[in-house]
Design a protein that fits this description.
The chain is α/β, with parallel strands linked by helices. It has a single domain, classed as Rossmann fold (3-Layer(aba) Sandwich). The protein has 13 helices and twelve strands. The strands form two sheets. A ten-stranded mixed β-sheet has the order 3-4-5-7-6-8-9-10-11-12, sandwiched between helices. Strands 1-2 form a two-stranded antiparallel sheet. β8, α4 and β9 form a beta-alpha-beta unit. The protein binds 2-acetamido-2-deoxy-beta-D-glucopyranose (10 copies). One 2-acetamido-2-deoxy-beta-D-glucopyranose binds next to loops.
Amino acid sequence: MLRLGHLLLTRALCFAAHASSDLSWYEAPDNFTSTQQPGVPLKIEQATDLTNYTVPGGLSMSRIIYTTLDAHGRVLPASAYILWPYHALPANDTSGYDVALWAHGTSGVFQPCAPSNYRSLQYHFMVPYLLGNQGMAVVAPDYAGLGVGSSPNGTQIRHPWATSPANANDMAFALTAARAAFPQYLKPNGLFVALGHSQGGRAAWGFSERQAISPLAGYRGTVLIAPAGSPVKIIENAMEDPTAAWAIPSLTLQTLIIDAVTAVYPSYNWAGYTNQTLDIYHNAFERYQVCLPTSNLLFGPIVANLTNPGWQNASEVKAWADLTQVGNKRFAGPVLLIAGNANGSDGIIPYDLPISSAVLTTVNELCDMNEKGGWDQSLQVVGFKNVTHFPVIQASENMWLDWVKQRVKGAAPKPRTGCSIESVEAFRGGKDSWKSLAPNFLVDWVNATLTWEYTL
Ligand SMILES: *[C@@H]1O[C@H](CO)[C@@H](O)[C@H](O)[C@H]1NC(C)=O
Ligand SMILES: *[C@@H]1O[C@H](CO)[C@@H](O)[C@H](O)[C@H]1NC(C)=O
Ligand SMILES: *[C@@H]1O[C@H](CO)[C@@H](O)[C@H](O)[C@H]1NC(C)=O
Ligand SMILES: *[C@@H]1O[C@H](CO)[C@@H](O)[C@H](O)[C@H]1NC(C)=O
Ligand SMILES: *[C@@H]1O[C@H](CO)[C@@H](O)[C@H](O)[C@H]1NC(C)=O
Ligand SMILES: *[C@@H]1O[C@H](CO)[C@@H](O)[C@H](O)[C@H]1NC(C)=O
Ligand SMILES: *[C@@H]1O[C@H](CO)[C@@H](O)[C@H](O)[C@H]1NC(C)=O
Ligand SMILES: *[C@@H]1O[C@H](CO)[C@@H](O)[C@H](O)[C@H]1NC(C)=O
Ligand SMILES: *[C@@H]1O[C@H](CO)[C@@H](O)[C@H](O)[C@H]1NC(C)=O
Ligand SMILES: CC(=O)N[C@H]1CO[C@H](CO)[C@@H](O)[C@@H]1O
């Protein structure tokens, strides 16, 4: 046990948001080999026992372990859940279910931080329950390293946080594997839309770029909610103006970036961490496999001392930043990008500030490439005024949900090619609505000091 102020960090506390503290289901199947094709199901749980989940009545769930590719093109085992609707609308037994390919936001970096084992699947009614209730099958990768924590030979699989090409592979191969595992419900060319929020917004952005190179059949577009083009640029901008309201929470991303660089380039070995951060990392964060938001209890108090000055100049960090940059290359549309704009940022990700990490800086450059390059792709960007990082999901729900349903029902008007940038303002100004970065939801009614009982 580790003392954190008046708290004791225990295994039970670390599993408070989980359906099960027994992770044996996630052991990599013995028939996994590194020479397999990606997108192959290795283990199929037809019907997940929902006793400890908050999944709405009518929906059902399956889990799979499947093969994916990491950032270096190596084959790895990874897990995903599939949330099944009660029935599709309109029910069509011959065409199979329409699919929402859902990329979750940051949950953590360790094996237990797999949303498929969270009581609420992490995003509950904000996304997966909503889509399932609307008649879509939700195919949701946990991402490599979350869920399946090691290869059969015992080598740890580290989760490459926000490493968009790898996270996008996990999305693509989860869908391919789900189609292979459930051919009675999911057709090889069934219609699907990709969606993601935050880290998942980056993953989905990378997925739309992947679709331009190696398309999966049935693709009808991508929704990006609160994506970040470049976390390293966010840190650099935050360090230039560390008192900006958005800069303070965004500086905590340093812990995750350095961990991701190490996951992709192990020789980097967390070199950017101070000794204090390394101590907390190894003796608490890693030892107890702590997930978000509990991890904020560990690193929040030392946010000013997390990293060594100039850490972002290391060659491995620069290589990671280049590898994972999204929004700088050809993509397959249509793409709907939704972002919160509360005084220029969503509280963590800059939106229209005149800095290199702002969403609109990336978008303006991308739109220029789209036009000059004759790509003819559709990118619709909508900034929601006065809403922050999580609340923007629900503030914009009627827009993106209609968009998704029209795409998979084939009823959408042909998207206008090129870019558009719009702004939406609350009828009532937004002054009186929820302002926290985190969602405001039923589960938040736990005692506010017991943050490990939440999922974001
Ligand atoms: C549900 O949670 C309880 C309490 O943690 C546990 O004993 C039980 O095994 C779990 N059931 C399933 C199906 O995971
Ligand atoms: C263990 O398996 C992984 C994945 O197949 C492979 O990349 C790695 O080289 C293996 N390690 C050893 C020590 O055999
Ligand atoms: C691995 O084994 C499982 C069950 O043991 C089987 O369903 C699956 O098809 C196998 N996959 C491969 C690629 O051999
Ligand atoms: C069901 O799907 C098939 C194959 O996509 C399509 O030909 C047929 O029109 C659909 N039927 C209905 C009722 O939507
Ligand atoms: C960090 O720890 C290492 C190994 O214990 C030590 O050599 C180094 O001097 C420490 N660095 C600082 C800045 O204290
Ligand atoms: C940050 O590091 C400095 C120098 O090592 C130390 O004096 C200070 O107490 C640390 N601050 C926190 C919040 O740990
Ligand atoms: C890191 O690089 C930036 C510019 O790229 C430079 O201003 C800064 O001094 C460098 N920091 C260190 C510690 O090398
Ligand atoms: C925007 O800034 C104003 C003035 O500083 C502040 O009152 C307001 O709460 C901020 N809005 C949000 C959503 O943070
Ligand atoms: C919340 O939990 C803390 C720590 O366990 C406890 O001290 C406090 O009394 C609780 N507050 C409420 C309102 O239950
Ligand atoms: C309360 C609040 O954040 N109000 C802001 C809403 O957005 C407008 C336009 O961006 C700002 O001027 C308000 O300050």
